[in-house]
Specification:
With 665 residues, the chain is mostly beta strands. It has three helices and 40 strands. The strands form two sheets. It has a 26-stranded antiparallel β-barrel. Strands 1, 2, 3, 4, 5, 6, 7, 8, 9, 10, 11 and 12 form a twelve-stranded antiparallel sheet that branches.
């Protein structure tokens, strides 16, 4: 028996004098190779040290004792004692076993491994996978193959520390590195206190996308009752997946949802969402369907398809947590097929609208064929054109077809004073049904001329630069028909002879633009009546010190403000404060909104928003969002208050269990 310290290298010793050392040295290579990752060990240097080493000839066993250490590249193994049987390839490491490499580490009181068939057992072990911070621990863990572990009873978490913030404890735990973890009789613990139980658990482990249940969401609503949302994710392939959702409302019934996502070669992508709930209060079935398909191409035929459908107009106001969904006025579905051509394109487009507030049905464009010639330079001129043939349909009122041809030529000259001129001809012809005012075959021929000249004056000060850009614009449209049925903006191409004076002010410092202000006033000689002066407009945009956007319109004839729209956000220390306002006199809109966001700590974020309807004299919507993210878990709490209703929802996030992403939330 040798009692002094020793150090071995795979190249530096002769086989005759150190055969016993070389055998145990090679066994350590096989230990690392079979348990964790494959290495070309014959070409790398390894260092092994211990206080003593002996060989038992009758059992063909090598025994190393006292601070046994194995070092190979980024891998290291330590233990108090190691035994290796050269006939059976069994290796036993006893006492304070510690393993570490670039991907994972573990500690154990004892490790028994067969290096030939790559199996074994770890006792009182804690296994740590560095990617995504996975921890698996148990009294006994069996290694059944490369990256495959089984334990009769074990815990799983992504939290650090001896007492993790959360963990799952289960029986018959199967873990396959890079794929999944599954277990039976699973209890969910918070600070070692059991709070939930599940008979079965399936979760991804060290995998970007893996089939399994996502974290559930819970909540309560005055109108819908208690709510439980359970999502299940199915990774069908590398480019396709599905999410199945079950919604359970104590007052409204059970809803089922399905979202399908895909990405294909050639810049093709899309997703689809289908939802159904049997509303027990209304005693009816409610359906929602959304789908988006995109196939963009600059070389061949491409296009997109966007479908939005609900069979109950109040669906979003009743069930959605997002204010932008609850305030939808219209649902638009559209699709387009596009063929790129040299400096132009041809397309076929359809649009379908659903009014979610009124009973009247909007005009539908089914379909429109068009050709667009992009601006093309011919000498000193630029030429472009748009030609469309459209079919319009609606349940009541005028419908029919429209041909619109709109060629344009442009020219720009000058340096100190820049002059741009546009000349266009527009021919619009109709084939209509039920049009009593102008007949079923009206048409409109119009000439459009636009002239604009502007200059730039620059004054540099010590701390900023002021740029003034005055401009004069004249816009002429001759129009022989003003009583056309309105299908879209084409019919708003009205007879015009307008002169507009504008003054643009820009302020810049060393960091860029800090403020822009534009004032404009128009005069239209074709204006009906004795009030040819158009509203005075002010547009203001400020980037600092306070971000502000404002636009307002003032009617000089009546002396009344026609509209005011403003948005402002101020950041003071860690608090973001914002306010917005909308006013339109003709449409009788008076609307205010305010909110603030606070992040006192890196892990905590709070956001509060409310909206006030000046016409109804009440707060129409209040949303409070509280989000907390720690090292291994997070929670998002949402409170929504509407007139006569409120909703409270809680969504948990556990690191390592994927994210919740749905078409509808």
């Amino acid at each position: 028996m040798i009692k002094n310290s020793y150090q071995l290298s795979v190249i530096s010793y002769q086989l005759r004098k150190t055969g016993c050392y070389l055998l145990i040295f090679i066994s350590l290579f096989f230990f690392h190779f079979s348990l964790f990752t494959g290495y070309c060990f014959a070409e790398e240097q390894i260092t092994v040290t211990s206080e003593s080493l002996e060989y038992e000839e009758e059992t063909s066993t090598y025994i190393a004792k006292g601070s046994v250490k194995v070092k190979k590249g980024e891998m290291s193994i330590e233990s108090d004692e190691m035994r290796y049987n050269e006939q059976t390839s069994d290796a036993i490491m006893i006492g304070n076993v510690r393993y570490n490499d670039k991907d994972m580490s573990f500690t154990a009181s004892r490790a028994e491994l067969n290096l030939e068939i790559k199996t074994g057992r770890l006792y009182e072990t804690a296994i740590f996978f560095k990617k995504d911070n996975y921890h698996i621990s148990g009294k006994e863990v069996e290694k059944r193959g490369e990256g495959y572990y089984f334990s009769p009873e074990a815990t799983f978490t992504t939290c650090d520390g001896p007492l993790p913030a959360w963990c799952f404890k289960g029986k018959e735990v199967n873990a396959v590195v890079g794929e999944r973890l599954k277990a039976k009789d699973v209890s969910f613990h918070i600070n070692d206190i059991p709070v939930l139980y599940a008979p079965y658990l399936w979760a991804p482990i060290l995998a970007e996308r893996q089939t399994g249940f996502l974290t559930p969401g819970i909540g309560y609503s005055k109108s819908r009752g208690a709510h439980l949302n359970i999502p299940f994710f199915w990774a069908m392939s590398e480019n396709r997946d599905m999410t199945f959702v079950m919604d359970m409302y104590s007052k409204r019934g059970i809803g089922e949802g399905l979202e399908y996502r895909y990405v294909e070669a050639g810049d093709i992508k899309g997703n689809a969402w289908l939802y159904h709930i049997r509303d027990t209060e209304l005693n009816k079935d409610i359906y929602e369907f959304k789908a988006v398909h995109e196939q963009r191409s600059t070389e061949g035929i491409g296009g997109f398809l966007n479908i939005n459908y609900v069979n109950e107009k109040d669906f979003y106001r009743e069930f959605s947590l997002l204010r932008e969904n609850r305030t939808y006025r219209f649902l638009e579905s559209d699709g387009e097929i596009s063929l790129p051509l040299p400096n132009s394109r041809a397309y076929l487009l359809s649009q379908y609208w659903v009014d979610l507030k009124e009973t009247t049905k909007p005009t539908q464009k089914l379909p429109e064929a068009g050709y667009v010639l992009n601006p093309t330079k011919i000498g000193n001129f630029w030429f472009s054109t748009i030609a469309t043939v459209s079919n319009f349909w609606r349940d009541q009122g005028v419908s029919g077809q429209r041909l619109d041809i709109y060629p344009k030529i442009s020219h720009t000259f000058g340096s100190d004073f820049v002059v741009t001129q546009d000349l266009a001809l527009r021919e619009t012809a109709y084939s209509l049904r039920d049009n009593e005012e102008t007949g079923n075959s009206p048409h409109r021929e119009a000439l459009e001329y636009n002239f604009i000249t502007h200059t730039r004056l620059i004054k540099k000060y010590e701390s900023f630069t002021h740029i003034i850009e005055p401009s004069i614009e004249y816009h002429l449209i001759t129009n022989s028909e003003n009583n056309l049925p309105v299908f879209d903006s084409t019919e708003l191409f009205k007879k015009t002879s307008r002169i507009e004076l504008a003054l643009l002010n820009r302020f810049l410092d060393n960091s860029g633009e800090i403020m822009v202000m534009r004032v404009s006033q128009g005069f239209d000689s074709f204006y009906d009546g004795d009030r040819p002066f158009l509203p005075l407009k002010l547009e203001l945009g400020v980037k600092k010190p306070i971000p502000l956007r404002l636009d307002t319109s003032y009617d000089v004839n009546t002396g009344k403000v026609e509209s005011v729209n403003s948005d402002m956000w101020i950041k003071v220390s860690d608090v973001l404060i914002g306010a917005m306002q909308r006013y339109n006199r003709q449409e009788d809109i008076t609307f205010f909104g305010a909110g603030f966001g606070l992040q006192p700590f890196k892990s905590l974020h709070t956001e509060v928003r409310f909206f006030y309807d000046g016409r109804e004299k009440q707060i129409t919507d209040t949303t409070i969002n509280l989000r907390y993210i720690s090292q291994c878990w997070g929670v998002n709490m949402v409170f929504v208050k509407k007139p006569h209703d409120f909703t409270f929802a809680v969504m948990f996030e556990l690191k390592g269990f994927g994210s919740r992403r749905f078409f509808r939330t």
